[in-house]
Hints:
Elements: H1 6-23, H2 43-63, H3 66-78, H4 84-96, H5 100-117, H6 121-141
Amino acid sequence: xxxxxxxxxxxxxxxxxxxxxxxxxxxxxxxxxxxxxxxxxxxxxxxxxxxxxxxxxxxxxxxxxxxxxxxxxxxxxxxxxxxxxxxxxxxxxxxxxxxxxxxxxxxxxxxxxxxxxxxxxxxxxxxxxxxxxxxxxxxxxx
Length: 142
């Protein structure tokens, strides 16, 4: 893998800031950091750390290893993973296990993560729609 120089990283960050502004997305430096989260010097470093774990999470889900996938997904969220994939997979796991309150909790965290990132409104709306569906379903069960 090619080693990045400080100059390259600086250019990349500048480019990403411009793109983020154009897309209405917050710059990486503006994302809030919560207690217990890992700290990364840029978005690329965070991506390089979490991408293999994200692939592993998806593989565990596909193979039906739900306990392992749940454990990995929760750890990723505690460490500060903010991309929607992990929230989606965890919500699917909880739905399959009929743990609707946990599913709602994960979707709420996912919605907050999308706000923190300034990510696409469509992802937020999808989480919001699924949360409403769970709420209605819970009301029907009660």
